[in-house]
Specification:
Layout: H1 2-16, H2 19-45, E1 50-56, E2 71-76, H3 81-87, E3 96-100, H4 108-114, E4 116-119, H5 125-147, H6 151-157, E5 166-167, E6 173-174, H7 177-214, H8 217-221, H9 227-269, H10 276-279, H11 284-296, H12 300-328, H13 332-353, H14 363-370, H15 375-382, H16 389-417, H17 427-435
Parallel strand pairs: 1-2, 1-3
Antiparallel strand pairs: 3-4, 5-6
């Protein structure tokens, strides 16, 4: 046991003292935010301002099709139609001409058939859809007038119905649409982070084992410690490295949420009655404070506890497989035929968990979060929505038992494979090592 502790300590300190670890740990959240900002700027930079001249032969659309910073309508006399179309190709200040024919006998089908947009370059799909939508809205209003329906009456018919959901299992807590969206987002983030880190750090264990095996350093090491102790020391050391990063990132996330929540409280005090109508008019920064407020209303101690438990057990479970693979092969090319067995169940659990968002308590959610091969990601995906205590206990017990069993099997393979050179391991060979 002392040897496992010493190897774990050495592996942990070796990784943590690297500059790359410190930089990545502190800058990774900022890099993710910056990456999102860059993507947003890229979309913003690709936006264009379009100028469309409109020939409205019926006079129905003039004054009703509104311009904005993305699309500018300029109504012109129909007498200039042909001249403008002929000059359009060389007119760089203009993107197109919209021809709206005269509406005769309220024949809207004929109007649609003869309406055309002449352009001098390709316009975006969104721009075209915006023009279609603006025309359709004017026609809709005209049809309403024809039927004697006031616009306010139609707005009242189209008014959405808001349904309050109160969960008696959570002390009659109201579950709003925003809260559900926050839970869904948190569920996906935790699930994806767990999936990625199990794979990333599991592969790191495999490469570390493979490197020591190829450099023959392991022959010196196991003269002082047992192969099983070396394997467990490596797995636990890298586990502590990953856990350290998670704790730092979780702390940074909570501090950020608290800061945003403070801003939310001060904003809410200045809003009379805290009406939903006023809140809907807040900008993005204020919406972010609402999201952070919803996050802080969740049972974070339980979520963090479950996240850490399932990450640790899931990581040790799959790292044992990766360590066994690293000891059984001689180069990274050969690892490809074995790593598929480790990646497939975890991938199945992740993609299966996407269906849990609409029904976290359904049969698929239950079984994915109970089966040890998929529970490290599926249970984390479910926990923001709430999971019965008995299911948590059953799932953790099964995962713990399966992890211990996997460590035992991996230790059997590691004990023989770490000293094998030149022989390509097959499934038949691995089975012999396990039985031996």
């Amino acid at each position: 046991m002392n040897n496992i502790f010493l190897i774990t300590k050495r592996e942990f300190l070796t990784q943590v003292k690297k500059k790359s670890f410190i930089i990545l740990t502190l800058l990774a959240p900022l890099m993710i935010i910056a990456f999102g900002a860059v993507i947003g700027l890229m979309f913003k930079a690709n936006e264009s301002h379009n100028v469309i001249q409109v020939v409205d032969k019926s006079g129905l659309f003039k004054g009703q099709m509104k311009s904005d910073d993305k699309l500018n309508y300029i109504f012109i006399a129909d007498a200039n139609e042909n001249a403008k179309i002929n000059a359009l190709k060389d007119d760089e200040s203009l993107n197109g001409i919209l021809i709206l024919p005269e509406l005769k006998n309220h024949n809207y089908d004929e109007l649609e058939k003869n309406t055309r947009l002449v352009v001098n370059s390709k316009i975006g799909f969104d721009t075209k859809q915006r023009i279609v939508s603006d025309i359709a809205n004017v026609i809709k209003k005209e049809k309403m007038k024809q039927l004697g329906i006031a616009e306010t009456q139609l707005d009242n018919l189209d008014k959405n119905f808001s349904l309050k959901t109160i969960n008696v299992s959570e002390n009659n807590k109201e579950d709003s649409d925003l809260a559900f969206g926050v839970k869904t987002g948190l569920s996906m983030v935790l699930m994806y982070v767990t999936f990625m880190f199990i794979i990333i750090y599991g592969v790191r264990v495999m490469r570390s084992v493979l490197e020591e095996k190829n450099n023959r350093v392991v022959e010196i090491i196991i003269s002082s410690v047992k192969p099983f102790e070396l394997m467990m020391g490596k797995i636990l050391g890298v586990t502590m490295v990953a856990l350290t990063q998670f704790i730092i990132w979780i702390t940074m996330s909570i501090i950020g949420a608290l800061i945003l929540n403070t801003g939310f409280s001060s904003i809410q005090k200045n809003i009379p009655g805290g009406s939903e109508e006023m809140m809907s008019k807040l900008d993005i920064a204020q919406i972010a404070t609402q999201i952070s407020h919803s996050l802080l209303e969740l049972n974070f101690p339980l979520i963090i506890f479950v996240f850490i438990i399932y990450f640790l057990l899931g990581y040790i479970f799959y790292s044992s497989i990766y360590a066994a693979i690293g000891s059984a092969v001689d180069n990274e090319t050969e690892t490809q035929q074995f790593t598929l067995f480790a990646i497939l169940p975890l991938t199945l659990g992740m993609y299966g968990s996407f269906s849990l968002m609409n029904n976290p308590d359904g049969p698929l959610g239950f079984w994915l979060s109970i089966i040890p091969f998929t529970s490290p990601v599926a249970m984390i995906a479910r926990i923001p929505f709430g999971v019965p205590v008995w299911q948590l206990i059953l799932s953790i017990t099964l995962l713990l038992g399966t992890t211990v069993f996997m460590i035992f099997l991996a230790g059997k393979i590691y004990r023989v494979g770490i000293l094998m050179y030149g022989n390509k391991a097959t499934m038949k060979e691995l089975w012999k090592w396990i039985k031996g």
